[in-house]
């Protein structure tokens, strides 16, 4: 089976896709986001596209404060069931950051996505933190007491 080049896929998908979200800003300026998987910044661009690139990186939250790092296997492009290589990390934040940095940047997998992967790790790790129950914060606004 012949594979289709990523640049051709991008030209087909970049303006019309079911994952495309267009938001209109000030005046005629519009911002385009993408909801596709394997897109770290959720930006509609060739660099971050999970559809057009053969090598992609995904970072998601897992069970019990674990973070899942998934990379695509380049040899399994025509088998979607076994396309992703997932590794679950239950380490401290610094250890996870070092592991992701080594996996994405230092292994020459996608060194251009190293900073994006670390930013996504930070956001996912922050969202997995559970608020500590116990002492409730008191309202610091001054309350008006009515005097008679």
Topology (SSEs and partners):
Blueprint: H1 6-13, E1 20-24, E2 30-34, E3 57-61, E4 67-72, E5 84-89, H2 93-106, H3 114-128
Antiparallel strand pairs: 1-2, 3-4, 4-5
Helix pairs in contact: 2-3
Short description:
With 148 residues, this protein is α+β, with helices and mostly antiparallel strands. It has three helices and five strands; from the N terminus they run αβββββαα. The chain has helices spanning 6-13, 93-106, 114-128; strands at residues 20-24, 30-34, 57-61, 67-72, 84-89.
What do these coordinates show?
By secondary structure, this protein is α+β, with helices and mostly antiparallel strands. The chain is built from 3 helices and 5 strands; from the N terminus they run αβββββαα. The longest helix is centred in the C-terminal third of the chain and has 15 residues. It starts with 5 loop residues before the first helix and ends in a 20-residue tail after the last helix. The mean pLDDT is 84.
Low-confidence regions: none
- Our estimate of the beta-strand percent is 15-25%
Mean pLDDT: 84
Give the radius of gyration: 21 Å
Spatial strand order of the main sheet = 3-4-5
Helix content: 25-40%
Main sheet characteristics: 3 strands, antiparallel
Structure annotation, total helices: 3
- Topology, number of strands: 5
| C-alpha geometry | flat
Structural class: alpha+beta
Tell me the span between the first and last alpha carbons: 87 Å
Order of helices and strands: HEEEEEHH
List keywords for this structure.
148 residues, three-stranded antiparallel sheet, two-stranded antiparallel sheet, 18% strand
